[in-house]
Design goal:
Helix content of chain A: 25-40%
Number of strands of chain A: 18
Oligomer: heterodimer
Structural class of chain A: alpha+beta
Distance between the termini of chain A: 43 Å
Number of helices of chain A: 13
Largest interface: A-B, 23 and 26 residues
CATH architecture of chain A: 3-Layer(aba) Sandwich
Strand content of chain A: 25-35%
Number of strands of chain B: 4
CATH class of chain A: Alpha Beta
CATH architecture of the domain at 2-144 and 206-227 in chain B: 3-Layer(aba) Sandwich
Order of helices and strands of chain B: EHEHHEHEHHHH
Strand order of the largest sheet of chain B: 2-1-3-4
Largest sheet of chain B: 4 strands, parallel
Distance between the termini of chain B: 31 Å
């Protein structure tokens, strides 16, 4: 099977990720840790990397509500104005490695290396060298081009396309999810990180995919009878639903949890390769966890990589021990507020607990604050 | 013959140091007490926590998704209960007359609710033993750590030695048991156990006055009496040595 996934992330100087590395990331991973440990920051970092590959860092910074990009830099210590990034990924048959230095003053990566299969790209001082075995090195001079982010937002590669196919869903806003979206003809829209544009996104799905999505939502929310997209003037699309004993009503009448379900299940039908869900269990009844965890482990066709953050031991309890050992990552901060990560069940006392308890039970039976303190000593 | 399966955290407490073939200080304490009471051969089968849990990983009970809450606010108690059930099964493998001793440090840095946590840990151990219908379980839980007991043992000057139970349970505290013990022994924290191991055999553990040790000692006495079909010590029985007051 052609698998697309992020294997390893290394970052220096991005918020609390002062010197952070996470490796051997499987197709389904759960980030756990106490509040403020850096789970959302790690997901947000991947969204930032996506903005580098989109070449829209300024827009991304504005969307985050930041006044200045330097607010992304790690506080304390020696002040540096760059963010160092390394990412290893599997792109089907190929392995890729990207290394970049993002300069916050220039709002772009000033030095980049990308190895993709046998091809190597090196970018420095405005010049991109491309080397392939048995071929002459190709040099492209981009000169003082006015772009932000990565040079690979200009020069399409398999890796840059892959990173653009990461989708981050953060704190979902029920009003944003339920509201109508405006979509120009023959265009498709994506669901934004707060859930906005859901109706526009569904409108762009094929009839088969719309039916499939409805069936999947019904599997979680049985009263739902029908779903349709109402097409209004000027390209506005709104989501209309019907339940067994209710006639057609607008999505604005749905509960927050059900709206979240729409968003969480809809992303299976995107072209995205990596889906990032922050606090994935929010708004979901515990009765649904078993089905939902099973769905996330086989998310989309072809299967997408899914990385979630969660505070729920019940959610973890539906993982097998092997899945929990490989895919549950514990994030914690050291005494100076820098985030670190350990595979949760590689920590000796947690490994022992997993032998006698379920993964969620083991988490629930552990004082995570105390564990963070122990690990940071 | 008195036989126990014994599970501790590390070679510094109740675990046999297989590399050096040393008995740990608390294993010496157990032997010392039993030799004091009975002239029977004592067999202690050491089992590590990871061996114990590895042996049971394919035989976990159905997940019940315990979570902490108002009824059970303390961490680690669910796993302690599961470990004690594993240990009870292990003891039964050795025969009907084999007991089990489970050691656990408190690892509870806060003094607040310390006594409640202590009782919750012991109750959790008994809950695991009871789940296997096992009557010969002996919780060994020092307040706050094994160093408190060592300090009580070697400090001849202190008239009321239970104050060592008020030492911090956190190794990071300047007042941690490890630091105070190292200071008293005139060695580093890492050397503590090599130094103390050579000393503990010459002490009479029966006289150690720390309340958490006395509670352990009474339970050990009752269980070993049961094992040998001897009369229980005065005023003690299986029920009143189960949960501390």
């Amino acid at each position: 099977m052609n698998m697309f996934k992020i294997d390893r992330i290394s970052v220096k100087n991005f918020k609390s990720l002062a010197d952070f590395e996470i490796s051997d990331i499987p197709m389904f991973s759960c980030l756990i840790g106490i509040n403020g440990s850096g789970k959302t920051t790690l997901l947000q970092f991947l969204d930032f990397v996506k903005s580098l590959m989109n070449g829209n860092v300024h827009q991304w910074v504005n969307e985050q509500g930041l006044n200045n990009v330097t607010e992304l830099l790690t506080l304390g210590g020696e002040r540096k104005y760059s963010i160092d990034i390394e990412i290893d990924a599997t792109l089907g048959e190929k392995k890729a490695f990207w290394k970049a230095k993002f300069n916050t003053r220039e709002m772009r990566c000033t030095v980049e290396t990308l190895r993709e299969g046998v091809v190597e790209y090196r970018y420095e001082y405005g010049k991109l060298n491309i080397s392939e075995p048995d071929k002459k090195i190709q040099v492209i001079d981009y000169g003082p081009s006015n772009y932000s982010g990565s040079i690979f937002s200009f020069r399409e590669t398999g890796f840059s396309k892959f990173i653009r196919q990461c989708r981050f869903l953060g704190v979902l806003d029920p009003h944003a999810i339920a509201q109508s979206s405006r979509v120009a003809k023959a265009q498709s829209v994506s669901v934004e990180s707060n859930g906005r544009n859901l109706s526009g996104f569904i409108a762009g799905l094929s009839a088969d995919n719309q039916r499939n999505l409805l069936a999947q939502i019904q599997n979680f929310y049985a009263p739902l009878k029908g779903m349709e997209i109402k097409r209004q003037q000027f390209g506005w699309k709104s989501l209309l639903l019907s339940e067994l004993e209710k006639s057609v009503f607008s999505a604005t009448n749905l509960s927050y949890g059900t709206l979240r379900l729409f968003v969480l299940l809809s992303q299976q039908f995107t072209d995205d390769k990596v889906i990032l869900f922050d606090e994935v269990e929010n708004g979901l009844n515990q009765e649904l966890f078993e089905k939902f965890v099973a769905k996330l482990q086989n998310y989309g066709e072809p299967k997408k990589q899914v990385i979630v953050s969660t505070h729920s031991g019940l959610f973890l309890n539906y993982l097998t021990d092997d899945q929990a050992r490989s895919g549950v990552f514990f994030l914690y901060k050291d005494k100076i507020g820098h985030t670190h990560v350990r595979r949760f069940f590689d920590i000796p006392q947690m490994s022992e607990k997993l032998n006698v308890l379920g993964p969620g039970e083991a988490m629930g039976d552990t004082d995570l604050m105390e564990l963070s303190d122990q690990l940071s000593d | 013959m008195i036989e126990f399966v014994v599970c501790g955290e590390g070679s510094s407490d109740l675990r046999h140091d297989a590399f050096n073939d040393y008995d740990s200080p608390l294993a010496i304490a157990v032997r010392n007490l039993l030799d004091n009471w009975y002239s029977e051969e004592v067999i202690m089968n050491m089992v590590s926590r990871s061996e114990l849990s590895d042996a049971n990983k394919n035989d976990k009970p159905k997940r019940k998704a315990y979570v902490r809450g108002a009824k059970n606010p303390y961490p680690n108690t669910v796993s302690i209960s599961a470990f004690s059930a594993c240990l009870a099964r292990k003891a039964v493998e050795h025969g009907d007359a084999c007991g089990a001793i489970l050691f656990e440090d408190m690892d509870f840095p806060s003094h607040e609710n310390r006594d409640k946590y202590y009782r919750a840990m012991i109750a959790a151990m008994h809950s695991g033993f009871d789940s296997e219908n096992f009557r010969m379980g002996v919780p060994m839980v020092p307040i706050t750590r094994s160093e408190s007991w060592m300090l009580c043992l070697i400090d001849k000057e202190a008239a009321q030695k239970s104050y060592y139970e008020n030492l911090s349970g956190s190794d990071n505290s300047p007042n941690s048991g490890k630091k105070v013990l190292a200071n008293m022994l005139g060695c580093t924290e890492h050397e503590n156990y090599n130094v103390i191991r050579s000393m503990v055999e010459s002490y009479d553990w029966n006289l150690l006055p720390a309340p958490s040790f006395i509670f352990f000692k009474n339970r050990l006495h009752v269980v070993s009496a049961l094992m040998l079909h001897e009369a229980f010590p005065d005023g003690l029985n299986l029920e009143n040595t189960k949960i501390p007051n």
